[in-house]
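Please produce the structure of this protein holding zinc ion.
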Amino acid sequence: MKIDRVLANNPGPYTGPGTNTWVVDDGSGAVGIIDPGPVETKHVNAIMDVVGKRKVDAVLVTHTHIDHAPLANPMARDLGVPAVGYAPGPHFQPDIRLLDGASFDVGTLRLEVVHTPGHADDHLCFRAGNALFTGDHIMGGSSVMVEKMGPYLKSLERLRGRGLERLHPGHGEEMDSPDNVIDWYLEHRRQRHEEIYRAISAGNDRVSDVVEVVYADVDRSLHPLAATSVEAHVTLLKDEGRIALEGDRLIALPAPHEEAPSDI
Ligand SMILES: [Zn+2]
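Below is the modeled complex.
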């Protein structure tokens, strides 16, 4: 197996240095292109320069967000190969759908499919040997925006202790020691979860107020992203019975041990 990265020219607060497009080779010249990224001529040329004379088998997407998927269909069409992903989305129409536990062969290389909802419902990770292409489930150098916290945490836990040795993320640098990275992600979310509960307990009863308090040290350009993650924590706190919603007001409920003792 040989893995090359092509960085798209779309840096920004939501994309870090830009989208990583991964070109994965089975070792004998059959390649898959993972997350081709935005429709941009220079990026297409950069990908095809890296591919060179090798044979492309498929264009795959980890999820259908605008920084990952829009080039997949046009590129697959031009190459005469299938576009592959979990489900149709606003920027993507799969020719082949892959569900959890499926596999997809690029030449002699088997990509195992792990459905990892959380950042997005339609998110997949692709495992090749001990390497994992993580899309936006895990990024290099930062935490990620989470749409659904319960599924996200489960999706992280599912990847622990599976013998992974290297992560190839949708943004940022490649990472070794995947279990340590996953532990950091889980701990970071656990801390945020408690910070958010404490902010609500202190009387911050709107998501926007909670963002101001909990993300005070984070650049304001990222606050809209943070709000999405706070909403996801709020839903989980509600499911856990730790807060209630009155309209869009957030009300902290006392922890069971704080309840007044009964008089028996
Ligand atoms: Zn992304």
